[in-house]
């Protein structure tokens, strides 16, 4: 150790909680601000060289602490009169040693290693099921990493390896069945793997790291190294640290206490110090609160009740009050609101170092959204999985679109993505940013009910181009056409790889890159920080595939890509202050002004006990591999440390999640019970529950505009130029049912909301039946028929057979796409006999004259208005015509028709001009088959006359500016989509309020 370090160490001896050896191990009491102490120590140790600290290396377990440390160091150096510093090198151990002694050979990338090992596994079909190959490759690599960083060596001979395992398991004979598979899998694959790497001149990155560690010792001695917060070092790292500690070139900083083993927060510290041969440091000073926590988690074997009694005597008043609050929320949303409220309260109190530590990423996202709504920016030290970013979502949508024959769902997602350089995103023409995907969604999907196939979308646009240009403008139509053409072109090479065969992985990656460039996504990714990482990952995968001749089917390639996106994290840059969200590990070196440990359920603290695919803990211990329980002990240590890392800590959990009870973390449960039984309170703050449930504590956007005046039902009077220039049965019925509907749909021209129905629905069934009956009497291309002559008992079988043929042809497309559509077909086939029965009787007096008869002519009383309609069927007899409307659903009653409540049939009679002898519905339902709503003679004549008069009067009134009030009755309103516009709920409430 340099003389000045020794001198400073002695001078500061009283300041350190615990100094061990030659002051090289700084074991700080829980609650000490480690970064501050570290900065203080560095400034003292190197006072002679200030402000130059560039020869110093500070090694953190996680890069998240670096920004905060630099700020702490600068603050302290300013206090000592140094306004600027040449800062120390802050890094992680892996990065530093690999930079110090870079590997000279060819390094296997981390992206390539799983893929390559999986390929090796597939070459041993007896050892591995291809379905499990990815998961097994992951487990094996984890084991290989542990083997490479431990002192254990896998024997060359399988027999010898089996003997070692048998001993570790305590089994006498190494030929025992249960050892056979595990031993031979590990032995065979370990040797295959190492031989394969040797043959290819490759070095595994973990092996390279181990070599760098061993080679870097001499060079490392040229630096002054500070190792902070490392409590989990492997054997090779421990050797490295021990050498540098012994030569006086390295100091260790960590929080904790020595002396505990087993399931205890301090076990990791005890094990580390024992491994470094630095046991038994002097006990660090500990305050009452720390003593209480030590008693709660005591592992000495002293009974629970003895500990409670001792604690009550040692500290009659709880030292945890005002330091620790435990909050149990009703559910996840309430828990997020509690965290949001606490942070905002602390922020208003001027606190600027606030931590929210949680392993629950869903909760973290919700908290972040709530705080950002309040204008508080949150730093996320844990980062995000690349798969959850919008850049990766756009890529997934593109590949989903290719896999699903350009299904409308991924295609729409892609069109809306800012990463696609579509014409509307590039503003090459005047169309609005939403216009193109709006046009696609409305016209190609909802209106035409086309759910997939680029060709079908393109054909639809081609066939309806003029209409679409008229309604959406030429720019939008052209932009959509070129966008679909762009997708078509970009997909070509990728589609060739979807043939179920194996192809070189490099082909997938190059086709993918090419397609991204054609969509403009490549360029946009380069302009985005996440996009750059994504492109880098794809390039690495491409390189790995090319270097190692990796071959995949399309599905295997996607599985590989998805795993890579899940395994890589995006880490936004950190400032090291403000409100920070993080996991337990990232919080290792932090001290806060206030802290929340959120989501403290057993699911996250400690979470599922990690299991190893190979060996139990006893065997791992015998083989010198880290025990599985080690990771749980590290979490326990981090949890215990956090309890003293801020003057005020709040731990939150919740009672239930989606109706299921949530089990509290056992560490929280133990703390709460101990406190309850010792001091009679469970550390809850009831006021917090009250505040959270109070609406005034939530952030609301306050509009300063005056509130709208309460009003009743709307009754707009449309300007005359808004009045429709045609009348139809539908718009006359709307005028009757609720004039406001007429105003919205017919005057304002707002279209009804369309809905995509991938399954055949009742309305589609009705449309198919109408088509069948039309084809039965008229010539329809590609369908059988039409029927010639009359139907009678003599030819009814042929008529039924023809109807069956037509029916199967009409339903063909539906039954091909969806097996459920067959139900609708069979339902209709079951009615054909009844239909022919009816025809036989009906045709005694009537002859079919026309089907699907369209009318569009000026109205007699006002030639500026067109009368439009299409009548399902017109039959003829000697005296006149019969108008028939097919109905597969409900029909109107004669009374309603006569009263003028239902206008469809009388309106058709008016359109036709006559002489019309009869109007009726033909109900095509199993239970009510036959004519209904029939009107003839004077009744018909009077009803039509009344309708004609009403139409004339209404047109006159509308031209005079009559209002169109909303007055739908319950039945009409139930089927109406306009409630949000007419605000019926609002005016009903107002009406009640005024009573
Ligand atoms: S919800 Fe009722 S009142 Fe409102 S527009 Fe529709 S039918 Fe008319």
List keywords for this structure.
26 strands, 6 domains, Rossmann fold, alpha/beta, 995 residues, 6-stranded mixed beta sheet, 51% helix, disordered C terminus, binds iron/sulfur cluster, 6-stranded parallel beta sheet
Question: Overview of this structure, please?
Answer:
This protein has 995 residues and is an alpha/beta fold. The protein has 6 domains: 170 residues, Rossmann fold (3-Layer(aba) Sandwich); 91 residues, no CATH class; 188 residues, 3-Layer(aba) Sandwich (Rossmann fold); 184 residues, PCRA, domain 4, CATH 1.10.486; 191 residues, Lambda Exonuclease, Chain A, CATH 3.90.320; 72 residues, no CATH class. The protein is built from 44 helices and 26 strands. It has a 6-stranded mixed beta sheet, sandwiched between helices. Helix 2 crosses helix 3 and helix 35 packs across helix 36. The longest helix is centred in the first third of the chain and has 23 residues. The chain is elongated and about 120 Å long. The N terminus and C terminus are likely disordered. Iron/sulfur cluster (SF4) binds next to helix 34, helix 42 and helix 43.
């Amino acid at each position: 150790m340099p003389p000045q370090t020794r001198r400073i160490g002695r001078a500061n001896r009283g300041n350190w909680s615990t100094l061990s050896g030659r002051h090289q191990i700084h074991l700080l009491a829980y609650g000490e601000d480690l970064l501050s102490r570290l900065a203080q120590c560095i400034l003292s140790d190197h006072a002679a060289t200030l402000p130059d600290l560039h020869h110093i290396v500070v090694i953190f377990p996680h890069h998240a602490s670096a920004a905060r440390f630099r700020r702490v160091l600068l603050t302290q150096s300013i206090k000592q009169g140094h306004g600027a510093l040449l800062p120390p090198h802050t890094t992680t151990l892996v990065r530093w040693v690999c930079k110090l002694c870079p590997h000279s050979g060819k390094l296997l990338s981390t992206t390539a290693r799983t893929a390559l090992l999986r390929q090796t596994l597939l070459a041993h079909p007896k050892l591995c099921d291809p379905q499990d190959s990815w998961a097994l490759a992951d487990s094996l690599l984890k084991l290989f990493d542990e083997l490479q960083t431990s002192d254990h060596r896998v024997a060359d001979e399988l027999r010898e390896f089996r003997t070692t395992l048998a001993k570790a398991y305590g089994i006498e004979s190494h030929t025992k069945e249960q050892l056979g598979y595990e031993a031979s899998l590990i032995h065979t694959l370990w040797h295959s793997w190492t031989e394969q790497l040797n043959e290819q001149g490759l070095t595994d990155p973990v092996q390279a790291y181990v070599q760098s560690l061993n080679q870097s010792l001499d060079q490392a001695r040229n630096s002054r190294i500070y190792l902070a917060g490392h409590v989990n070092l492997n054997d090779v790292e421990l050797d490295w640290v021990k050498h540098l500690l012994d030569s006086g070139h390295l100091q260790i900083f960590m929080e904790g206490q020595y002396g505990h083993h087993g399931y205890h927060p301090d076990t990791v510290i005890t094990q580390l110090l024992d491994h470094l041969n630095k046991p038994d440091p002097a006990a660090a000073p500990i305050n009452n609160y720390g003593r209480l926590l030590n008693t709660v988690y005591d592992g000495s074997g002293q009974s629970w009740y003895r500990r409670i009694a001792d604690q009550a005597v040692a500290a009659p008043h709880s030292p945890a009050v005002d330091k620790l609050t435990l909050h149990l929320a009703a559910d996840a949303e309430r828990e997020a609101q509690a965290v949001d409220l606490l942070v905002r309260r602390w922020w208003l109190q001027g606190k600027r170092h606030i931590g929210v530590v949680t392993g629950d990423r869903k909760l973290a996202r919700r908290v972040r959204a709530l705080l950002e709504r309040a204008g508080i920016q949150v730093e996320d030290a844990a980062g995000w999985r690349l798969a959850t970013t919008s850049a990766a979502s756009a890529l997934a949508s593109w590949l989903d679109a290719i896999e699903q024959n350009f299904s409308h769902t991924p295609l729409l997602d892609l069109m809306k993505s800012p990463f696609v350089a579509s014409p509307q995103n590039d503003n090459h023409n005047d169309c609005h940013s939403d216009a193109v995907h709006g046009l696609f969604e409305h016209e190609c999907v909802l209106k035409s009910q086309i759910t997939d196939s680029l060709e079908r979308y393109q054909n639809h646009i081609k066939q309806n181009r003029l209409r679409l240009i008229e309604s959406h403008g030429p720019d939008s139509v052209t932009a959509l056409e070129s966008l679909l053409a762009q997708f078509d072109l970009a997909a070509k090479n990728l589609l060739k790889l979807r043939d179920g065969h194996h192809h070189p992985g490099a082909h997938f990656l190059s086709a993918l890159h090419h397609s991204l460039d054609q969509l403009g996504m490549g360029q946009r990714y380069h302009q985005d920080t996440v996009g750059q990482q994504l492109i880098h990952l794809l390039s690495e995968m491409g390189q790995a595939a090319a270097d190692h001749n990796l071959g995949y089917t399309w599905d295997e390639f996607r599985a590989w890509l998805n795993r890579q996106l899940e395994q890589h994290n995006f880490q936004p840059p950190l400032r090291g202050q403000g409100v920070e969200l993080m996991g337990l590990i990232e919080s290792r070196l932090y001290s806060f002004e206030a802290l929340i440990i959120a989501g403290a359920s057993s699911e996250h603290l400690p979470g599922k006990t990690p299991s190893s695919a190979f060996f139990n803990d006893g065997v791992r211990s015998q083989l010198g591999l880290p025990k599985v329980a080690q990771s749980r002990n590290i979490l326990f240590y981090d949890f215990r440390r956090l309890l003293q890392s801020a003057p005020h800590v709040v731990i939150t959990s919740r009672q239930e999640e989606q109706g299921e009870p949530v089990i509290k973390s056992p560490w929280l449960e133990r703390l709460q019970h101990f406190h309850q039984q010792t001091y009679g309170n469970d550390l809850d703050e009831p006021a917090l529950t009250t505040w959270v449930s109070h609406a005034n504590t939530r952030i609301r956007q306050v509009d300063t505009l005056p509130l709208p005046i309460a009003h009743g039902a709307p009754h707009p009077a449309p300007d005359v130029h808004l009045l429709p220039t045609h009348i139809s049965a539908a718009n006359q019925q709307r005028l009757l049912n609720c004039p406001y509907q007429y105003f919205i749909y017919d005057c304002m021209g707002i279209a009804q909301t369309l809905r995509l129905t991938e399954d055949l629905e009742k309305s589609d069934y009705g449309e198919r039946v109408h088509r069948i009956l039309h084809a039965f009497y008229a010539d329809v291309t590609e369908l059988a028929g039409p029927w010639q002559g009359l139907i009678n008992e003599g030819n009814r079988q042929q008529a039924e057979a023809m109807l069956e043929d037509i029916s199967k042809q009409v339903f063909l497309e539906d039954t091909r796409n969806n097996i459920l559509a067959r139900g609708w077909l069979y339902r209709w086939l079951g009615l054909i006999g009844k239909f022919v029965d009816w025809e036989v009787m009906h045709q005694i007096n009537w002859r079919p004259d026309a089907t699907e008869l369209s009318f569009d002519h000026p109205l007699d009383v006002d030639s500026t208005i067109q009368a439009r309609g299409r009548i399902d069927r017109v039959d003829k007899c000697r005296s006149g015509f019969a108008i028939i409307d097919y109905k597969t659903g409900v029909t109107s009653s004669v009374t309603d028709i006569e009263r003028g409540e239902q206008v469809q049939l009388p309106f058709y009679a008016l359109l036709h001009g006559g002489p019309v002898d009869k109007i009726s519905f033909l109900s095509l339902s199993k239970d009510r088959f036959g004519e209904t709503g029939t009107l003839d003679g004077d009744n018909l004549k009077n009803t039509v006359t009344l309708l004609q008069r009403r139409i004339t009067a209404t047109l006159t009134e509308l031209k005079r500016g009559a209002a169109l009030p909303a007055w739908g009755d319950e039945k009409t309103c139930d089927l109406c989509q306009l409630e949000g516009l007419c605000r019926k709920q609002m005016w009903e409430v107002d009406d009640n309020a005024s009573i």
